[in-house]
């Protein structure tokens, strides 16, 4: 199968491309940077022919059509994540209109398999129960959340009409070989480089390699729409830090217990500051709600119906810390005994 891919040089997209290629599929990439394709895939030994690299934007219908020419399926993971107020219009256009352009283009061409990467966050609102993909879409509170909610409504309407769109709903995506140190990986990095905050709620992750396996399974489903959670075990913040201590053999610094309402108030203050000083950092009310009130989600139905399993978070954290050490993001004193199993670092 030849698959048109957006977001292929990102964290989720690059692992998914590797899963597609390893399974014998061909890919056509729609990317913003040809150089990044070489940088991301050459070191992995994934050969992407130049003719299958189309430079363009997901909101450019002509470039999307060029990328889809001769393809049998589409995978859409590209999204703009930027929390600055000045970027709100660009975020809304890229994420919501990009879905209409890419997935709408695939539907117009009658492609029988379309895979879309959504997020569990589109269902989250404070006080809700465990998250699942049949829940109502939560009222958005930021431009990014609105863009994902608008895209989700558009996709869901077409799924409900029978369109062959298969959507994944990941929790925080963690794993090795991250081209850009994305949000959940950056949070893990911050635990060691700075310190972790003990508070209510917790951290729920999915290994990027398991998410890629889910996308491969969704690509190869015989027909029809589907919505599937991608989430491993939910751990409280103290449980997460204790696990990281066990993996590294050390104990990194933690802040004293900070009540959830305090962090949420700081997030609200961050929202006010953004009106004066625009910054791309998740000190927002929205982010603090996620951190302190995340209710968790279960991937059990995904495993039962598709046979896709989610590895223990201990394995994911160990592999990710080893990669962070090997890539120079963290030092030996951060990762402790994980460094002993790592490849020697260049001198």
Supply the helix-strand structural class. alpha/beta
What is the tally of helical segments?
13
Low-confidence segments: none
Proportion of residues in extended strands: 5-15%
Secondary-structure element order, N to C: EHEHEHEHEHEEHEEHEEHEHHHHH
- Overall geometry comes to globular
Mean pLDDT: 92
Return the CATH class of the domain at 2-174 and 206-234 and 295-310.
Answer: Alpha Beta
CATH superfamily heading of the domain at 2-174 and 206-234 and 295-310: NAD(P)-binding Rossmann-like Domain
Walk me through this protein's architecture.
With 347 residues, the protein is an alpha/beta fold. The protein has a domain at 2-174 and 206-234 and 295-310: NAD(P)-binding Rossmann-like Domain (Rossmann fold, 3-Layer(aba) Sandwich), CATH 3.40.50.720. Helices cover 44% and strands 14% of the residues. It has helices at residues 11-22, 34-41, 61-68, 88-108, 143-160, 183-193, 208-219, 237-248, 260-274, 285-293, 300-306, 313-326, 332-335; strands at residues 2-6, 26-31, 53-55, 73-76, 113-117, 165-170, 172-174, 196-197, 202-207, 226-230, 234-236, 254-255. It has a 7-stranded parallel sheet, sandwiched between helices. The relative contact order is 0.13.
Short summary of the structure?
Helix content is 44%, strand content 14%. With 347 residues, the chain is α/β, with parallel strands linked by helices. The strands form three sheets. Strands 3-2-1-4-5-6-10 form a seven-stranded parallel beta sheet, sandwiched between helices.
């Amino acid at each position: 199968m030849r698959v048109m891919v957006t977001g292929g040089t990102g964290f989720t997209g690059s692992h998914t491309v590797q899963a597609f290629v390893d399974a014998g599929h061909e890919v056509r990439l729609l990317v913003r940077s040809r150089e990044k394709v070489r940088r991301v895939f050459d070191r992995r030994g994934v050969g992407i022919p130049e003719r299958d690299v189309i430079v363009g934007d997901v909101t450019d219908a002509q470039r999307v059509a060029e990328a889809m020419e001769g393809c049998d399926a589409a995978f859409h993971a590209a999204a703009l994540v930027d929390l600055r107020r000045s970027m709100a219009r660009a975020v809304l256009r890229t994420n919501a209109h990009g879905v209409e352009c890419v997935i709408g283009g695939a539907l117009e061409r009658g492609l029988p398999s379309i895979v879309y990467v959504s997020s569990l966050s589109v269902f989250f609102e404070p006080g809700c129960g465990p998250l699942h993909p049949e829940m109502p879409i939560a009222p958005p509170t930021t431009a990014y959340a609105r863009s994902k909610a608008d895209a989700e409504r558009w996709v869901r309407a077409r799924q409900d009409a029978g369109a062959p769109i298969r959507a994944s709903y990941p929790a925080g995506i963690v794993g090795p070989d991250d081209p850009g140190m994305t949000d959940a990986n950056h949070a893990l990095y911050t635990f060691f480089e700075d310190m972790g905050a003990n508070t209510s709620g917790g951290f729920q992750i999915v290994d990027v390699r398991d998410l890629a396996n889910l996308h491969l399974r969704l690509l190869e489903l015989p027909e029809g729409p589907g919505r599937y959670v991608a989430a491993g075990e939910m751990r409280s913040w103290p449980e997460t830090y204790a696990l990281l201590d066990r993996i590294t053999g050390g104990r990194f610094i933690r802040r004293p217990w900070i009540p959830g309402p305090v962090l949420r108030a700081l997030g609200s203050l961050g929202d006010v500051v953004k009106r004066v000083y625009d910054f791309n950092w998740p000190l927002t009310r929205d982010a603090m709600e996620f951190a302190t009130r995340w209710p968790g989600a279960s991937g059990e139905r995904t495993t039962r119906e598709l046979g896709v399993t989610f590895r223990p978070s201990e394995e994911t954290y160990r592999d990710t810390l080893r990669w962070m050490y090997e890539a120079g993001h963290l030092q030996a004193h951060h990762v402790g005994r994980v460094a002993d199993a790592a490849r020697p670092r260049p001198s």
